[in-house]
Design a protein that fits this description.
With 165 residues, this protein is of the alpha+beta class. It contains 3 helices and 7 strands; from the N terminus they run ββββαβββαα.
């Protein structure tokens, strides 16, 4: 029987931050245990993808993030049988640089710590990744994939919705 509800993937943003051949990751508590992820989170209403990735990176790493390019749009599906959840994620990934950690700034709830990992370390810990997109985004970054930030267009109506009469 076909599902007649509109498909609504969960839209997230991710910051892919590389320094000296190592990627900045977060170790976070999840229903599946302690997992590794790029600094990432959900796009909120009235927020552009660029605003969201800057906010999420700061909340999860205590470091200011400056997006420099759009890495790409990625999709993955995740099923949690115990909770009967079946979620498709649409991830908008951005590459850029992070500033120094802000002293005294608390990490977002559920984030245990941040760490820097090489691609080899990432590949060796794939079973601990929050999703297969963690490694995929880092590998795409290492391969030189990048698009200009202006490929992401945001209309002013995002901040002041149009009223049609």
């Amino acid at each position: 029987m076909p599902n007649h509800e509109r498909f609504r993937p969960s839209v997230t943003v991710a910051a892919v931050i590389e320094r000296d051949g190592h990627y900045l990751l977060v170790e976070e508590e999840t229903p599946e245990g302690l997992m590794l992820n790029n600094p990432a989170g959900h796009l909120e209403e009235g927020e552009s993808p660029l605003e969201a990735v800057v906010r999420e990176a700061l909340e999860e790493t205590a470091r200011p993030f400056t997006p420099e390019f759009f890495l790409g749009a990625y999709m993955a599906r995740f099923v949690r049988p115990a909770r009967h959840e079946d979620v498709t994620y649409l991830r908008l990934a951005f590459g850029g640089r992070a500033g120094d950690e802000i002293a005294g700034r608390v990490l977002d709830q559920g984030i245990v710590r941040t760490l820097w990992m090489s691609l080899e370390e990432l590949r060796a810990t794939a079973e601990r990744h929050r999703s297969p997109l963690v490694l995929r985004c880092c590998e795409d970054h290492a391969a030189g994939r990048c698009l200009p930030l202006d490929v992401i267009r945001v209309d002013a109506s995002l901040y002041a919705p149009l009223v049609k009469s």
